[in-house]
Design goal:
about 120 residues; 3-stranded antiparallel beta sheet
């Protein structure tokens, strides 16, 4: 299991600082969770089934339990995540964004991720 990923600056990959641009260990697991949540299903041309199915859950009558299940499954299936200790997901209809607050146990220890994800398409 490779746990080295390129660090994000904002929501874009960082370059130009050699190894300082790489995240490892717990930081890489948290970043994988974040990027997996931010990827929309169908946006990667090499695997249109990959990504988070935001449109399927939010494109019809909004059900908080479906949104919670979607996010929970996406995080649980992230490489390096052993368990999800707590998860809160709230959807803001006005801004069309989902606030995700999650605490995970990973192969490197525990971490908390708080991310506001725009789900506009």
């Amino acid at each position: 299991m490779s746990q080295t990923v390129r660090r994000l600056v904002g929501n874009d990959y960082s370059f130009g600082q050699s190894r300082a641009n790489l995240a490892t260990g717990l930081e890489s697991v948290v970043q994988r969770c974040k990027t997996r949540l931010m990827q929309f299903q169908g946006e990667w041309f090499l695997d249109v089934n990959s990504g988070t199915a935001w449109a399927q859950v939010l494109g019809r009558r909004y059900e908080p339990s479906e949104l919670h299940s979607l996010v929970l499954e996406r995080i649980r299936s992230t490489e390096g995540v052993l368990s999800v200790e707590s998860l809160t997901v709230s959807f803001n209809h006005d801004t069309r964004s989902a606030l995700v607050l999650v605490t995970i146990n990973s192969v490197y220890g525990s971490a908390t991720l708080s991310e506001n994800i725009s789900v506009l398409e």
